[in-house]
Amino acid sequence: MFKNYLVVTWRSLWKNKTFSAINISGLAIGLSASLVIYLLVSYHFGFNKFDRDGDRIYRIVSDFVFTGVEYHNSGVTSPLGRAVQNELTGFDEVAAFRTWNDGVKVSVADAHKSFKKQRNIIFANVHYFNLFRHQWIAGTPATALQQPYQTVLTASNAQLYFPGLSASEIIGRELYFNDTVRTTVTGIVNDFKENTDFAFKIFVSYSTLSTTGLKPEDWDQWSSTNGASQLFVKLSAGAQVPQVEKEINKLYNKYNKPEPGNNNKTSYRLQPLNDIHFNSTYGAFGQPLANKQTLYGLLAIAAFLLLLGCINFINLTTAQAAQRAKEIGVRKAIGSSQKQLILQFLGETFQLTLIAALLSILLTPLILKAFAGFIPEGLGLSLATQPGVLLFLILLILLVTVLSGFYPALVLAGYNPVQTLKNQTYANAGKTRNAWMRKSLTVSQFVIAQVFILATVVVSKQIHYSLNKDLGFKKDAIVYFSTNVNEPDAKKRISLMNKLKAIPEIAMVSLGSAPPSSNGSWSSTMRYKDLETDVQVKIGDTGYLKLYGLQLLAGENIQHSDTVNGVLINERYAQILGFATSQQAIGQYITWDEERHVPITGVIANFHQTSLREPIKPLIIAHWSAKANTFSIALYPQNKAGTAWKAAFGKMEKAWKEIYPEEDFSYSFFNEEIARFYKNERQISRLLMWAAALAIFISSLGLLGLVIYTIRQRTKEIGVRKILGASVVQIVTLISKEFILLVILAFIIAIPLAWLSMHQWLQQFAYRTGMSSWIFVVSGLVMLSIALLTLGLQTIRAALVNPVKSLRAE
């Protein structure tokens, strides 16, 4: 019997090659999308699963409220870790560590080898390794970081610095950090094989901080919070998060009592380990994060595309039912039961779905390559090493088989053998429940496709708005680069400045900190009278405002000085301080970090310090030579030959090498940095465009199936109408009218669904575009045009058929 099913299946597929190819293509698209999205989602949801007690591991993070504005920081005050360790209970482990955020030069002692811009370095101790359990190759966690100037390496970095040596031979070797801190390698651990945000490669003993010049200024300050100062805890079994948070905040207030009348607030909360990879509010040590809403959205896209493929299969299968009606009648007449027929048709669907699945396996690597910018590095498809993927694919095949094949199997197996043998299968079929089912499925297809089209347009419109909105500064033809912030010789920067100014292709040079808008931020607590505010800080020289086109509203520009002798503030900060006009702020004094009492010398117009997701925050610009390590360069317009900028960069690199011969030179375009703010939105837009295109393609196939089904029903009617004088246009209009109404109905249903979803998505932006009526009009016209094209190909063909052929007895 099984062999007979196979023979019948292949005979049916070969007889209807076009429909079979369409069915397989639709299902393969849905299966490929589902497989790729499964790989991506399972990858991200598999992060930080290296500890079976991970549900009890938390990071302590800081939340602030200054003048009613919320701020967040992944770090804590430096003394908090020691205080929690010594004074609180309810923890199995408390691990404080500090990240080394700057690109560090690592040199191998006695080997004359240096490795520049090394990252993923932290200062840690035994508590870190008790919490995050690496496999030790050499050394032990109890002693490897017990003393100052000890270093533990991961296996990958051990081989990088000491190629060809065994782990035992590397132990005892020495490394220099920035040519000043000399350490001894005391341990080697395996790199994490699991997906993790803890991609640290070098671990320097925590006690090294307090015995070298690396000791941070905030080491003993309870009032200063730095993202580099990290604190993780593992709660004891039965410990309650709210109670632990209460005790930590109580401990903080013990050492940093709030002043009477001060309404600003600092509080700590526990962030679960499994939240770190998805929470952009606090970040994950500079590692790329995932967005849960985006991942859930991808799952929805996969489900919708798969559903479209199934609907398409149902419509096309039922559209071909007439061709198999006699076969079914004969089978029933000779004794086949309805159950046997259902199993046969489900078996056919299974085989067809299996072919689509095999095709999807071949397509998946190509899709992963096409979306390389969105897919994490190293993510691929390997059924041999990924048993979860194989299981997912098997379940997916079974699910699609049931969804796609069960309803058509019931329809086909339910035919009356007498009617089928008399060619009466489709009498009044246009008014049956099955016809309405097909129409409902077609409407559902076009609703999904229409929502995808509308979402694509809205996301693209927001990206265009973000990139073209007046941000309050100039961003074109500006490049910037930075020197080492710890460079002790300030004269080198001045010398480089003079060399850059002498380059004829450069219009202007400014030495300060980061550009007006950047991913990184520096903020500090400032007080005016009794009002404390967390304020963003930018460092700039006298040319900073002019180079970036920042508008001075009142007062005067900052003056050159070795110390901070005045600051510019933005309009937002002036408003928070209560000044009715910008001029009123001039000459007033603010207290900066309790150390500096400086006057406000000018007020500048607001500009966006980061992406449009964030509101404009209070900000100051000051001249501070010791903190100025970023060169901003405005270039003259490119020449017609397009060689001026290339020449400028070559001369800039030559000037750099003359001052810093051992350092690599690299620069960034400011406008490209702004565009990177919206990398995630661009990726979403690209995915939506593909999803919309695939949804339209599959929906059009579904519509095509319904048209074919209807034309076959009305073949004789069309022939009679042509004999009675109906024109081709009249016949096409008659047949198409019903389908156009279905598309219009789908559009009406899609409008509120798309509006609600995209309105919610836009709420993440503090500054956003509107959903204009033209978006819906254009999207509707696009969908209607595609539907008309699909309909026209079949209806015109049917209307041109010779009526003699239409009326011929079957």
TrEMBL record:
Residues 20-250 form the MacB-like periplasmic core domain. It is found in: Cell membrane. One of its GO terms (molecular function) is transmembrane transporter activity. It comes from Chitinophaga niabensis. Its main location: membrane. It is a multi-pass membrane protein. Residues 300-417, 691-799 form the ABC3 transporter permease C-terminal domain. One of its GO terms (cellular component) is plasma membrane. The lineage of its organism: Bacteria, Pseudomonadati, Bacteroidota, Chitinophagia, Chitinophagales. This is Duplicated orphan permease. InterPro entries: ABC3_permease_C, MacB_PCD, Macrolide_Exporter_MacB.
